Amino acid sequence: MIGRGAAAAALLALTACGPVSVEQAERQCLGRAHATTGPHGEVGVGVNSKGNALARLKLGVTSDYLMGRDPSAVFDQCVYQKSRQPPTQPLYSRSDWKN
Predict the structure, then answer these.
(1) Residues 71 and 34: beta-carbon distance below 8 Å
(2) Which domain holds residue 44?
(3) Is the pLDDT of residue 1 over 70?
(4) CB atoms within 10 A of CB 48
(5) Among 44, 60, 91, 96, whose Cα sits 20 to 30 Å from the Cα of 31?
(6) At what angle do helices 22-35 and 71-83 cross, to 10 degrees?
(7) Does residue 26 fall inside a structural domain?
(8) Is 24 within the bounds of a domain?
(9) For residue 1, is it within any domain?
(10) How many domains does the chain have?
(11) Euclidean distance between the first and final Cα of the chain, in Å?
(12) Which of 71, 83, 86 lies closest to 32, judged by CA?
């Protein structure tokens, strides 16, 4: 028999997997759609107090980009998977879409 604490923890875990609001899904999926447009990263160069050169490189590439997927299709699918609803407007007509 499952104790009350274990049952509550299981219920909480299942709730975390449930659909989110379409607005929240759109905010979460915007970054995924943007990552579809190409490799993204940053480069940092500097010098420390001892005169030593410092460098940093961070590069990210998504499988959506490698597969040539359309950012709008990625956005639509992501929003639907997270909210079980279609986006409120197409990706390319959003004011916060910059590409």
Answers:
(1) yes
(2) 19-93
(3) no
(4) 8
(5) 44
(6) 150
(7) yes
(8) yes
(9) no
(10) 1
(11) 55
(12) 71
